[in-house]
Amino acid sequence: MTLLMLLALAVAGAIGAVLRLLADHYLQPSGILVANSIGSFVAGLTTTGVSGPAQAIWVVGLAGALTTFSTVSVSTALDALSGRFAAALGSWSAHLALAMLAVGLGLALGGAFR
Fold first, then answer.
1. CA distance 29 to 88
2. Residue ranges for the binding site?
3. End-to-end Cα, the chain, rounded Å
4. Euclidean distance between CA atoms 25 and 31, whole angstroms
5. Where are the alpha helices (DSSP H) in the chain?
6. pLDDT at position 38
7. What is the pTM of this model?
8. Cβ-Cβ contacts under 8 Å for 112 (sequence gap 6 or more)
9. Which three-class secondary structure state does DSSP give residue 50?
């Protein structure tokens, strides 16, 4: 692992984090769902379509920072604690279903480029 690779990973992570923040801010109430779905697609696509250090930069850096399990968990818990159980279950289900669909699509498309 080179210093250049670590710097590229850090930059990709910073970009992913900023994109997640912007999505959450401007795409309410579904910004995190959008960010998680796009990040899951990027992770799937680059897992099969890219190899070596570039794969880590895309998957760990960009997609890892763009997607967020903790934000979804907090949002879902707050809904449940406020008595909005249907919203909590719906949000959790939507995040899981769309993330899996996006990863599957990304894996399929990434494999087609090899």
1. 13
2. 64, 67
3. 24
4. 7
5. 3-26, 31-49, 53-56, 64-66, 69-81, 85-112
6. 96
7. 0.86
8. none
9. coil
Q: How high is the mean pLDDT of the chain?
A: 94
pLDDT in tens, 50-99: 899 999 999 999 999 999 888 889 889 999 999 999 999 999 999 999 99
Burial class (CB in 10 A: 0-12, 13-18, 19+), 12: buried
Residues belonging to the chain: 114
Instruction: Map tokens 């995040």 to a residue.
Output: 95
Tokens 């949002």 belong to residue: 75
Which residues sit in the known binding site for Na(+)? 64, 67
| Alpha carbons 81 and 108: distance in angstroms, whole number | 38
Q: Is the four-CA dihedral 32, 58, 104, 68 of positive or negative sign?
A: negative
DSSP at 1: -
- Which residue in this structure is represented by tokens 């998680």? 36
Residue 53, token pair as written in the block: 């250090």
